[in-house]
Amino acid sequence: MADERTSVLLIGGRSGVGKSTVAAAVHDLLVGRDVPHAVVEGDALDLAHPTPWEHGVAAANLADVWRRYRSLGHRRLVYTNTVSVLEADVLAAAVGDQPHVTSVLLTASDGVARERLRRREQGESYDAHVTRSDAAAGRLEAAAGDDVHRVPTDGRTPGEIAAEVVALAGW
């Protein structure tokens, strides 16, 4: 009997590491292979002011969104969020059905992350993103366990990274 549990690929990492870009490349790769899946940008699940993260809004919204995808037969979920790899248990509970979880921490050097941020942020916004990105990089590296796969992004194409993370998930 086939395992019908959900398979979740968590993609985390600092700002400017390429989470959204890699998720889009994973999507393209899976579409090319005709593999059913859904991609959810975690930041969009609780993007509000004041920030509602302490109320578990993102996990509750993920549960609602995933329930709809599951009802359509989806079993593979790609989820991106800076700290997703630190919240694997909470996200797995939101998805339900004791999912298979593959956690991937994308890494980038400070210089590469700043260059990528410079393409999308300017002025004070750039400065704030760099500060948060640097802090997140240190926190993620220190707090992510040995079960989290570290995948470097410097000097690599999104397609190359996507192929690696899809292989790590066993898809």
Q: Looking at the chains present, what oligomeric state does this protein adopt?
A: single chain
> What does the radius of gyration come to?
16 Å
Give the strand tally.
Answer: 5
Question: Describe the biggest sheet?
Answer: 5 strands, parallel
**Unreliable sequence segments:** none
InterPro entries: P-loop_NTPase
Protein name: ATPase
The gist of it:
The chain has 171 residues and is α/β, with parallel strands linked by helices. It has helices at 19-32, 57-71, 88-95, 110-120, 123-143, 158-169, and strands spanning 7-12, 38-41, 76-80, 100-107, 149-152.
What report would you give on this structure?
- The protein has helices spanning 19-32, 57-71, 88-95, 110-120, 123-143, 158-169; strands at residues 7-12, 38-41, 76-80, 100-107, 149-152.
- The two termini are 18 Å apart.
- It contains six helices and five strands, in the order E-H-E-H-E-H-E-H-H-E-H.
- The mean pLDDT is 96.
- It is an alpha/beta fold and 171 residues long.
- It has a single domain, classed as P-loop containing nucleotide triphosphate hydrolases (Rossmann fold), CATH 3.40.50.300.
- It is globular.
